[in-house]
């Protein structure tokens, strides 16, 4: 059993969320049984927060791992594990939100998720397959979709509800309608895309920020080496006796943001948890803030069409590009 205890944040919903989570999105997922054993490794080394989504294809394997972890006594109760899943864009229709969550719960083998997120502020025509969205996009129904998310919360099927990839304008539009405000906004964030404006807005509104792509997603088709090859991080890593990845993750942790890491290698899983008991100096933080060029990694081009709801990237990202 691991002796790593990951700090938690109390969300606006009152739910406690571990500040380090393990993600499950990748283009070539291993077979389900292999993925289940990877998740079990993660539980063994100390992960208690897992981030999946309807479109990742990893819900079943994660659910199986949670069941096995309970059987083997790696955790004492379901309450020790924090599970996030997400509503995919084909189900972002008011009448499909609750059925979509029920399907996710069935795949996970769980009675509830700890956090349910709208994956994107995007609505696709029902039945759209794959990732070619041309001609498939409909205007996003902010009010109706969020009301359906609130129903998921009121029924106890999601302990907390939130959003992912929402900019400040969309959050402000959502808050105008919301009875239950979003507890979390999960967005791309790393030292090369620090999201200061959005984080300041979320802080003001009591919305906790969670970071995907904390190391720049250098394995993804759209990813970059801006984090792992950063001369600034390399220099800090040498003086601290840490890896570049640990410095990059520690910086996010020090911003009070939940970091969603993704490594299927057990040693790196352990390394990614070793960001808790040391600090960056003020000088280190200043260098990271001032010396690393800023550029969004995931462009969002796939969602922008002349005849679609978002005709410009600016509209998708609320001007923050």
Protein described:
By secondary structure, this protein is α/β, with parallel strands linked by helices. The chain is 36% helix and 16% strand. The protein is built from 11 helices and 12 strands. Strand 4 (49-51), helix 2 and strand 5 form a beta-alpha-beta unit. Helix 1 (32-45) crosses helix 2 (59-71), helix 4 crosses helix 5 and helix 7 (231-240) packs across helix 8 (244-254). The longest helix has 14 residues, at 32-45. The radius of gyration is 19 Å and the shape is globular. 43% of the residues are buried.
Query: How large a portion of the residues is in β-strands, by DSSP E?
Result: 15-25%
Structural class: alpha/beta
**Strand order within the widest beta sheet:** 3-4-5-6-9-10-11-12
The level of helicity is 25-40%
Low-pLDDT runs of 5+ residues are none
Main sheet characteristics: 8 strands, parallel, barrel
Give me the number of helical elements.
11
Shape: globular
Radius of gyration: 19 Å
- Mean pLDDT rating: 95
H/E order of the elements?
Answer: EEEHEHEHEEEHEHEHEHHEHHH
What is the β-strand count? 12
